[in-house]
Amino acid sequence: MDQRQRLTPQMAGGLASAAVLLLAVLALAAFVVRDAEEERITGEAAVDAIIGAVERQDISALLDRVMYLETPCSLAPLPDPVTNIEPPSCPAGAADSTMIPVFMTGSCEGRWVTAEGVLATFAERLSDPQQVYAVVRMETPYNFIVAQYRIVFGRPGELAFPFSGHIAVFDGAIVQLATWCDGVREQFLTLEAAGGEPLFVSPDLEIESPIQAGGS
Length: 216
Known about the structure:
The chain has one domain: Nuclear Transport Factor 2, Chain: A. It is built from five helices and eight strands; from the N terminus they run H-H-H-E-E-E-H-E-E-E-E-H-E. The chain has helices at residues 9-39, 45-56, 59-63, 115-125, 184-193; strands at residues 69-72, 99-107, 109-113, 131-137, 149-154, 164-170, 173-180, 197-201. Strands 1, 2, 3, 4, 5, 6, 7 and 8 form an eight-stranded mixed sheet that branches.
C-alpha cells in the first residue's frame, strides 16, 4: 500500500500562503534591521532620533523634544545692541520684563517665538523634504545658544545659498531651529571653525573631514 500523501489543492494553497507569510516576515525583519542601522548615525540616541524625525518630516516627534527657555519680555521690544535680537513681546496683561517661555528660531537673524509660534516655525522649516548633511559636537555657546550638538540640514541636492537649516540639541532636547543665510557647506565649515567636532559628515558635502578621512 502506498503510504505517500497526495498533495491536495487545499494543502498546496496553505503552503503557498505560509510561504508568502514567511517572505513578508523576513522582509519586515530586514527593513527593521536596516532602519535601525540607518538611525545609528552618531551613536547618540537622542540626536539620531531627531535626525530621523527631520528626514521623515515628523513634526510631531520634533515638537515633543522642544525645550523652552525663559527670557524677559518687553512692552516695547528693540534689538539688543550686542546680539541684534529683539526680546519677545509681552503677552496681553503681562508686565514689562516678565519672564516668559520662548524658543529661539529665525532666518539669518535670531528671534524668539512663544509656544504659539513654535508649530508654525517647524511646519515652515520642514515643509519640503530635508536631508541631514552634518552633525557636530559643540560644547561652547554659538549664536548665543548653549547646546551640545548642532545638526545641519537642507533640501536634498541644494548645498549653496540661500538655505540651510540648523538644529541645536541640549540634553536630548531641541533648543533652537533656524534657517541661516548661507549654504549647507558654509554652515558646517562655520561650526567646525567655531570649535565643532564632526560626528557625521555626508559625502555629499565633498569636504575632507576626520570622519571621512578615517580619523576618530
